[in-house]
Amino acid sequence: MQILDTYTAFRTVTKSDTADVGQIDGHYPVALQCGETGVVRVIGADNFDVVFTVAVGQILPITFKRVMSSTTAGTLFVALYKI
Fold this sequence. Notes:
With 83 residues, this protein is mainly β. The protein contains no helices and 7 strands.
């Protein structure tokens, strides 16, 4: 039986090429829930820029600080935190 991760906070994500997602108590999100199938471009907490192909409902277990508007298709993103 697989045990699922537990997150302690969550926020909706607005795609932006200039603004980071909010930190909670100095922590960036540790996962991104994707509400649609498509491509999502993120900037990691280490400033690394990468593109993922995601399925509807998929959770990417990544620490990130921005979901880029350019290149990212779809909406309905949720930032998941462990604080």
